[in-house]
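Margin note: ligand = magnesium ion.
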Amino acid sequence: MIEISHVNKWYGPTFQVLKDCTTSVAKGEVVVVCGPSGSGKSTLIKCVNALEPFQEGQIILDGIKVNDPKTDLPKLRARVGMVFQHFELFPHLRIIDNLCLAQEKVLGRSHEEAVAKGNKLLERVGLTVHANKYPAELSGGQQQRVAIARALAMDPIAMLFDEPTSALDPEMISEVLDVMVDLAHEGMTMMVVTHEMGFASKVAHRVIFMDKGEIVEDAQKTDFFGSPRSERAQKFLSKILSH
Amino acid sequence: MNYNWNWHIFFEPNPTGSGTYLDMLVSGLWLTIKTALLAWIIALIFGTVIGILRSLPSKTASWIGFAYVEFFRNMPLLVQLFLWFFVLPELLPRAAGLWLKQLPNAPFWTAAIGVGLFMSARVAVQLAAGIASLPRGQKQAATALGLTLTQGYRYVLLPMAFRIIMPPLTSEFLNTVKNTSVAITIGLIELTGQARAMQEFSFQVFEAFTAATVMYLAINIIVVTGMRFLERSLAIPGYITGK
Ligand SMILES: Nc1ncnc2c1ncn2[C@@H]1O[C@H](COP(=O)(O)OP(=O)(O)O)[C@@H](O)[C@H]1O
Ligand SMILES: [Mg+2]
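Resulting structure:
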């Protein structure tokens, strides 16, 4: 589903943020990406839906080459859901309109269709009663669930998450993780940047560990938690697990 | 000081045969309002385009935006009006220049366009600042949903940016009204022009300019009230600007 091969990316002339990154995510697979802050996790997943360009290597998404100048990027991006650390709901739109905007403007669905779909997804994330509120009237956990629903409304073939719970108060983390766990169980293809190792051990198939722009470790979940091969991954794991 | 106050002067006929002195001032007031409104529309349209250009990642676009703003903002308004009114017709081919000079209402159009372009540079700066103040993730979220750049600006960035810059836009609108008085120098007999004419005919300088002041004040009050109303009707529940 997602094939990342030998991706190199630089910010400016000298700073290499991604170094020869190669990995893949199969259909229905859940891959967790972890690593210290600044290691390039966000940059890597933003390359997948071409939010960030990269200079070398290639990424193929459902058979389509992301870094081909001929690729219709808006169309490609519409097929991949993305959830951000800070939710990024559109503050001037009601919750339901946040869910409808791209359905109508990008997929060309009628307003009625979009609303019906939006309501179905709001019900799924347990926020039906908030449909007519504005994002600022919701808690962080609720906003993030809306953001997930907004992405799902596009019927994505895969979902990318960039630290979806790290801006949340601790008591709101589980309500968001629950939605993500359900998604994983339904067979959604997911690439998730997170330090929630509980989530990783529950639903991930594979875990990728990044450091300084490199994929240091790319292992089956049990191998990763059982016996991380690199010293850097061991150190990182012991640090976050001791929290 | 030997000054003969005469507040009844307003109801005495003026020597141009166009009714009373008050009629003179009111016709000036209308011209001021018409000029200011047209100038403001021009300022909003050009300011929006240039403000967007300034916010784009493209070097060429932001350079054009930069050059435009520096040109119109740094040259005194008076000089700009002279340029459009006296110099431009001379620079054009003879026929076009002649046509321009003989346009009916040439001072009005020149003033509206000249003040409009001058103010558009200031609107552009405000808008670019408003767009820049939005979280980076907003544009990314719009892009990730498959919205094109144009759609992202139209549905996500501009609605928020304009809300944020409403207070400075109000004062730019007021500046537009005030700046129309410079057009007196190219022969536009707007409110200030009529007040001066009244003073020349009647020697009642204080009455004339008191009345003009009151009229400018009234316009300001209407503008401020209107903008407050607009601001309030566009306010987003729960959203605190500057957050
Ligand atoms: N737009 C940018 N310009 C320059 N450097 C950037 C930019 N975005 C991120 N970086 C740098 O790239 C590195 C990786 O960033 P990021 O992918 O956000 O890391 P992570 O998500 O793992 O914390 C960091 O050192 C960061 O400072
Ligand atoms: Mg990050």
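Chain B touches chain A at residues 135, 137-138, 140-148, 151, 155-156, 159-160, 163, 236-240 (CB under 8 Å).
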